[in-house]
Design goal:
Layout lengths: L1 E4 L6 H7 L31 H5 L15 E7 L5 E7 L1 H4 L4 E6 L3 E3 L5 E7 L2 H10 L1 E6 L6 H5 L13 E9 L2 H7 L2 E9 L2 E2 L7 E7 L2 E6 L4 H12 L6 E4 L15 H13 L3 E4 L2 H7 L2 E2 L1 E10 L5 E11 L10 H5 L6 E8 L14 H19 L3 H7 L5 H4 L4 E2 L4 H12 L15 E12 L8 E6 L5 E4 L9 H13 L6 E4 L16 H28 L6 E4 L2 E4 L7 E2 H5 L6 E6 L7 E2 L2 E12 L5 E11 L6 H20 L30 E5 L24 H13 L10 H10 L4
Parallel strand pairs: 2-14, 12-13, 17-18, 19-28, 22-23, 30-31
Antiparallel strand pairs: 1-8, 2-6, 3-5, 3-7, 4-6, 8-18, 9-16, 10-15, 11-12, 11-14, 16-17, 20-29, 21-22, 21-27, 24-25, 25-26, 29-30
Helix pairs in contact: 11-19, 15-16, 18-19
The structure holds dioxothiomolybdenum(VI) ion (MOS).
Dioxothiomolybdenum(VI) ion binds next to loops.
């Protein structure tokens, strides 16, 4: 019997937010009524707002300015552990131009960067000067900064209520001991990942403004609805009094999900001064105060028959998320491959640094580096083709083929096939490290899994005005992925219009409910709701036209801005003409229905990377990445491809460069800027080839599209690490694979 026991889920709140209401009332929709060919859906449509964005006309939170606006700034603790004895705001308040000051902290500070106090002043310089005048008395206490130090006996206790190490996940199925007994080959390896910082192009920022008891906040957020709810809770005011707006944002990877502490501060300062207050985090603050991807220190062990059949998989993982709980990293190991005997134990280790945050595919990214590294090393040990080893253990059901629900759609085999073809899989070293000379090339791959099924209950309204113009309203947001464009594409397709004919209103919490943009769920939530509204509008228009044309509604189609008879659509009536008769704007309410019950919904993918390693300097150059992803139906080829390019780039960056470095002695961050914290630049990014099987998931929703936000990020670091292994014959097993780590691994030259 399988047992699944989650002691604590660090993202419980996040997942609950993602699906707060469910949608029991909405009956599952029948299979897709997909016409033979779509004109816009699946085509390569340029972003409807692309011109606005590249010409600088799109308005970001950073761009907002009001005449009487004040600038808010936050004083942060320089100590990783200390008691705040006293805060004196007096000297700051006495500075001309300072309009308000707040105390934000009492008692124990547990990480350097925690909010201590805040000011609102007429300009940035005055606000900065005022922060320097605030007098804070601290009693400095010992801190602990590394996983190892925190686990050691006698380490300072980070949390008040709990030990430095807590069990965060415990899962088992089958009989792990029996699984290893049955194995002919057993391999155990330890993989590590570092702290990886959220560095969106636009740093975190909020502008807050009150009108009587009504609060409006412009926020660089992935979650207009979530921030509305969070602000209402934090300020103790009715949610209906809060409106959150986000027109455009310069990226968000998880740290902009839900309300942030500085946003509450902006609202409090605005209430106190009666003026709008803007808080923009500096790049430095953004680097060490808003979270990061927790680290992983993960020992994984596999048992297999000589033919590659897995008999056992085991994981013991210590993840470290500072004062927050780390990520559960076991899902890929539990889910991806057919294996009857699995055992997982995960621990969260606390240290005195900022709490980690959800970061693009939390847990799966780290867990995939470990699982897929192990699979690659196991293949080498067994003398098997690494891709064949994956195929040998292909699973058709949830929980590594041991669960009850079959996958609604799993096009991973197509991803394997297409990806292997496009990278030239046969060119890899048949034996890892088989090449010669200073520069060694290699090819590696990794599989990917991630939910991304979308949220039932998502709503969208489609309005047709009496001038014939069409508007879609949805309380979702575009975090840079092209949400406006896919909404326009779906509405246009359904109504026989062009994407540019559709006005799209999003990014406002007053609009019909949609989930936060996290968990790869925006497109599979929003697009089906828009499709539903547009189908209702189409039915209405067809009914009207049928009467006027004196034909059966079933004989009417929408095409080229006309509603007309199937036999000759050009004889139809202009939608614009029909709309003239509307007494008022006609509103059609769309809702995203439930998924067909009884199936497991996941996205799948496989990435293939080719690298060159300089064995003298330890430098890695990624030459090419092929990224094949089963995301169901592709809504817009251009934005889908751009999402993949972004995800692979981020994975490459983490694989080679990214690492938050803390100074153990002072407890502060050593590299809180983009000079010392390295990210991939255009010089590092190779040819990236996105590939989509593009098979609609007929059971998922009325369009059959799954999510894509996180999937391309998940296997990228692992595929690159495996390519390095294929090149040099030794697995580095720790990202970022800096030159020094590569050289150290080469020196060890242990056999596999
Ligand atoms: Mo994300 S971690 O779904 O922004």
């Amino acid at each position: 019997m399988s047992k699944r026991q989650m002691i604590e889920d660090p993202y419980a709140e996040y997942w609950a937010q993602a699906n707060p209401q469910g949608n029991p009332a909405a009956a599952p929709k029948p299979a897709l009524s997909t016409p033979g060919g779509f004109k816009h859906i699946g085509a390569a449509t340029p972003r409807v707002d692309g011109r606005m964005i590249v010409t600088g006309q799109a308005r970001y939170t950073h761009d907002l300015f009001f005449d009487d606006m004040l600038i808010g700034a936050i004083l942060r603790s320089p100590y990783a552990c200390a008691d705040v004895v006293s805060i004196d705001l007096g000297p700051a308040l006495a500075l001309p131009g300072v309009k308000a000051a707040l105390k934000l902290k009492e008692g124990r500070v547990r990480w350097a960067g925690e909010q201590i106090a805040a000011v609102a002043a007429v300009d940035e310089a005055t606000a900065e000067e005022a922060l320097g005048l605030i007098k804070v008395e601290y009693k400095v206490l010992p801190h602990v900064m590394t996983e190892e130090a925190s686990r050691a006996a006698g380490a300072p206790q980070v949390q008040e209520q709990q030990a430095n190490v807590i069990k965060s996940n415990d899962y088992s199925r089958g009989d792990i001991a029996k699984g290893f007994q049955e194995a002919e080959v057993v391999l155990e390896r330890t993989y590590r990942t570092s702290w990886e910082v959220h560095h969106p192009a636009e740093t975190h920022s909020s502008v807050a403004s009150w009108e009587d008891d009504d609060l409006t906040v412009w926020d660089s957020t992935q979650a207009v609805q979530g921030v509305r709810d969070g602000l209402a809770r934090s300020l103790g005011i009715p949610a209906g009094r809060v409106r959150v707006i986000k027109h455009y944002m310069g990226g968000g990877f998880g740290s902009k999900l839900g309300v942030n502490d500085y946003t509450v501060v902006a609202a409090r300062l605005a209430r106190e001064t009666g003026r709008p207050v803007k808080v923009v985090l500096t790049r430095r603050e953004n680097a060490f105060c808003v979270g990061y991807r927790p680290s992983m220190h993960n020992t994984v062990k596999a048992g297999a028959k000589k033919d590659g059949t897995l008999t056992a998989l085991q994981m013991t993982n210590y993840n470290c998320g500072g004062t927050g709980r780390g990520d559960r990293c076991s899902e890929p190991l539990v889910e991806v491959y057919k294996c009857p005997n699995v055992k997982v134990e995960e621990y969260s280790v606390f240290v005195n640094t900022c709490p980690s945050r959800a970061t693009r595919a939390p847990g799966h990214t780290q867990g995939t580096l470990a699982l897929e590294g192990l699979m690659e090393e196991l293949a080498a040990k067994l003398g098997l083709d690494p891709l064949e080893l994956r195929r040998k253990n292909y699973s058709g059901k949830e929980r590594g083929d041991t669960g009850t629900a079959a996958y609604s759609l799993k096009a991973l085999e197509q991803c394997y096939k297409l990806g292997a073809e496009k990278i030239g899989w046969e060119r890899r070293n048949k034996k890892p490290g088989a090449g010669a000379g200073r520069f060694r090339t290699g090819i590696g791959m990794a599989s990917q899994i991630w939910p991304g099924a979308g949220v039932p209950g998502t709503r969208a309204d489609l309005k047709i005005y009496s001038d014939g113009s069409v508007e879609v309203e949805c309380g979702t947001q575009d975090i840079g992925t092209g949400t406006r464009t896919h909404i326009a594409v779906v509405a246009a397709e359904t109504l026989g219009l062009e994407p540019k004919d559709i006005s799209v209103e999003i990014g406002n919490s007053d609009l019909p409910w949609a989930p936060n943009s996290g968990g790869s769920l925006t497109a599979p939530s929003v697009a089906p709701a828009v499709r539903d509204a547009a189908l209702k509008a189409a039915e209405f228009l067809k009914g009207l036209a049928a009467k006027k044309l004196n034909v059966a509604p079933a004989e009417v189609v929408l095409e080229n801005k006309k509603v007309g008879p199937k036999s000759d659509p050009s004889k139809g009536l202009e939608i614009r003409e029909l709309a003239r008769t509307f007494p008022r704007p006609m509103v059609f309410h769309g809702e995203r229905a439930d998924n067909t019950p009884g199936f497991a919904y996941q996205t799948f993918g496989a990435q293939f990377a080719e690298v060159e390693v300089d064995t003298e300097t330890g430098k890695i150059r990624v030459k090419k990445v092929v990224a094949a992803h089963d995301i169901g139906r592709v809504l817009n080829r251009l934005t889908a491809e751009s999402q993949v390019v972004g995800g692979v780039t981020q994975g490459l960056s983490a694989a080679l460069f990214e690492e938050k470095v803390m100074d153990e002695a002072t407890g502060t961050m050593v590299n809180p800027n983009l000079h010392d914290y390295k990210i991939a630049t255009v010089r590092d990014i190779p040819e990236i080839v996105p590939v989509f099987p593009d098979v609609p998931d007929e059971r998922l929703n009325n369009l059959g599209n799954k999510g894509l936000g996180e999937p391309p990020r998940i296997p990228a670091s692992a595929a690159i690490a495996n390519a390095v292994f294929n090149a040099v014959g030794v697995h580095v097993r720790e990202i970022p694979m800096t030159p020094s780590r590569v050289l150290a691994a080469l020196k060890k030259k242990e056999g596999v």
